[in-house]
Amino acid sequence: MDDVELRELVPRVLSVLVRRGADFATAEDAVQEALIRALAAWGEELPADPTGWLITVAWRAFLDMTRSSAARRERELRFDTEPPAGAIPSADDTLRLYFLCAHPDLTSSSAVALTLRAVGGLTTRQIAQAYLVPEPTMAQRISRAKRTVSGAGVDRPGDVNTVMRVLYLVFNEGYSGDVDLAAEAIRLTRQLSGLVDDPEVQGLLALMLLHHARRRSRTRPDGSIVVLADQDRRQWDAALIAEGVGIVQAALARDQLGEYQAQAAIAALHADAPRVEETDWVQIVEWYDELLRFADTPIVRLNRAVAVGEADGAPAGLAALAEVDEHVPRREAVAAYLHERNGDLELAARLYASAARNAPNLAERDHQTRQAARLNQHLQHHR
Amino acid sequence: MAKYLLLKHYRGAPAAVNNVPMDQWKPDEVEAHIQYMNDFATRLESSGEFIDGQALSPDGVWVRYDGEGRPPVTDGPFAETKDLIAGWMVIDVDSYERAIELAGELSAAPGAGGRPIHEWLEVRPFLAPPPNFTH
Questions:
Q1: ipTM tops 0.90
Q2: At the fourth CATH level, which superfamily is domain B2-125?
Q3: For residue A192, how many other CB atoms are within 10 A of its CB?
Q4: Using one digit for the tens of pLDDT, what is the confidence trace for A68-119?
Q5: CA distance B69 to chain A (A)
Q6: Which of A147, A182, A217 is the last residue of a domain?
Q7: CB atoms within 10 A of CB A327
Q8: Cα B78–B52–B4 angle (5° rounding)?
Q9: Minimal CA–CA distance to A112: which of A36, A173, A30, A31?
Q10: Domain that holds residue A42
Q11: How many CB pairs under 8 A join A and B?
Q12: Residue of chain B with shortest Cα separation from A355
């Protein structure tokens, strides 16, 4: 059993402990303790029933933790030593755990951290490394989050939309440290899609798979950006694309459109084109119009302007861009691209340089600087 | 070992010798510069002297407390005359001489025409923690 298979058992084990009356915060610590013991013990021999083993060990760890804190407070032990029989992990319990970790009272960063630990089974150290914060900071964030939700109880009905938002945030964080957060987000979304029947969850899963399929071609080994048009499509993961396309088609057939399905449909249309010239930009613009019904944000409008530029030509793209909020990040980069396509190279070069100054990260700054340098050299030669 | 902060400025430092904005360089000069910076950071990590490096956006505002029950006052964006930090690197090195040597190497990063930029970098020693033993 590898690390991921082991972590798949975590939400079930935790929900059983909570069902038995353990408080969420202590139960979660007990499950982490059981995980650490499992990693040490299972190297030699895998137990016949790994979930049962984890439940038993986590329950004992929970009792030890409760006893020591009860002793400190000179209180009676509230729990029987022997676990009650018949506590079977259920899908509903796992789903409630997702809801609890994405509780609306939590800030986004707390919900993300708690979900990765309590549902994903990652250690505090792994989560801290992934988000480039010191481990004690992440430990504090998680224990604060647990205190916030421990009063909430797992019986309250949850909102799958908050869960999807948290998983989407995890996915977008990408990769740093030894944990691939995108892969982890996919794993958790896949698990969620087995627990709740919602075409939007399917849409989110498809969206993640379709983006993940292109990950190898998006950056060069030195970290520099490769734009969609320049990506080597032979590097795209055909199996992930096939799975993503299948999932989004099945979701769309249910006729309950939402923002994740619309985004997945757009990603599927890109994935479908063997060469960038064969991209169905007209249909992509139509999907952006659908997406605007659910998420009318400046970022969606900005991306739509790019698609309009490809479908109907640069002047139409610039007209669509004129409607987009001036302050949305990357607007200058899009304007530069559309003006270049429109033949106004001097303006495009100035906009690329400005986009570089205002880029939100170093990879994009370098990319826009290269674009400006390329155009300026071209202009010098043709002056 | 002693820690030093190497500061790079958007504005406020004396003008570099090879002072051409990066978007006016040739594309291969841009590549060479980026490569040099990546190699420098990698070399410092492998020598065990690298602590941290971060780049800052040129955006920013002044903020101050404005009294009980009132939101903080902000003033910005920064005026064109303000000294503006672009980023930093924290190094942990054996000597002041080594810190100066490394800052000099960083300043030698190639720019327009493939020639070194000779950019002015600020080198600031950290205040050290108190020693364990005093005599």
A1: no
A2: Dimeric alpha+beta barrel (3.30.70.1060)
A3: 21
A4: 776 665 544 444 444 454 455 677 788 888 998 999 889 999 999 999 999 9
A5: 23
A6: A182
A7: 7
A8: 85
A9: A173
A10: 1-89
A11: 40
A12: B23
